[in-house]
Amino acid sequence: MDIKKDFLEYINSLGSVIANAPMSDFTSFACGGAADILIIPQNARVLAGLFKELSNTDLPLTVIGGGSNLLVGDRGIRGVVVAVREYAGNTGIIETADGLVYADAMVSKSRFIDFCLKNGLGGIDFMAGIPGCIGGGVAMNAGANGGNFSGILRRIACVDRKGEAFTVNAEPSMSDYRGFSAGEGVFVAGAFFELDTKGADETATLVQDALAQRTLKHPLEYPSAGSVFKNPESAPAWQLVEAAGFKGRGVGGAMVSEKHSNFIINTGGAKPSDIRALIELIRDAVMKKFSVDLEPEIKMIGEF
Asked: Is residue 124 part of a domain?
């Protein structure tokens, strides 16, 4: 029996299915090899059935969000990649529920912000300008300007690799700096947030200020995955990268941004191996000069 053929016949009704999908089209770095099978579910409700069906095959499973914090290897990803994101007109649910705001994992952060502004809800300005989806934001505990997802997250709708769906309360022990986990093999299907009732005008001003600062300070004109390294306790990562002499330096088509030294940009034709090589050169130099081990914030997956 051809497992892939049978599986593809089943999942075609669950969303968009792309064979040999170039991950350069689905990551903000705009590079990366092909995924054997890429599935973009039509909504969060199909995730349980999809994962249950996957558990009955021997196909490796990789789950991603909007691809905005991801570096995929040159040789791509074997098996099935499930991208929990909005795509081709499919949009996730955002609604108020029991005094909280619920959003499917696939909902884009920008659309979530728009919903909150229209409903006079605040506490979301920290995510202004951060690309990607709500699920990825929760999984990475994304944040800026003193705020992050764990600060407003109250419950998580989850699904595990076997297709079991359940909801858990968000506990402080589940999150850390740029990380969140509800357990091994557990994925975010949706999240419930507790937001304040700041006036819409005040929140909109904070959002616009945050967007203006990002435009001023970040190299948004080039493909990138945002901040490459987590900030260590000793100093901001960008300062260490710059002091190690890497501002403007590159490998192949990958270059440390002149505008922000914690961004590696794709100046055109960068290969994932170029980006990874540049990351390792920076880490080695910073360790040698400052005895600081810079930990990558971006996730590297697939075969290099």
From this structure: yes
Candidates 252, 27, 35; CA nearest to 279 is: 252
At 1 the pLDDT is 36
Place of tokens 């929140």: 203
Do 172 and 148 fall into the same domain?
yes
Residue 152 neighbours by CB distance under 10 Å: 22
Q: Which residues of the chain have pLDDT under 70?
A: 1-8, 198-199
| Structural domain contains residue 88 | no
Which sign does the torsion angle of CA 282, 284, 290, 296 carry? positive
Q: At 32, list the tokens.
A: 């990366």
- How far are the Cα atoms of 8, 232, 283 from residue 53, in angstroms, in the given order? 11, 41, 41
Prediction pTM value: 0.92
Q: What is the CATH number of the domain that holds 242?
A: 3.90.78.10
**Max CA-CA distance within the chain?**
60
Residues 54, 77: Cα–Cα separation, whole Å: 16
- The set of catalytic residues is 178, 227, 297
Residue 180: predicted pLDDT: 83
CB 143 within 8 A of CB 76: no
Range of the domain at 180: 94-202
Nearest-angstrom CA–CA distance, 188 and 176: 16
In the numeric block, the tokens 């969303």 are attached to: 15
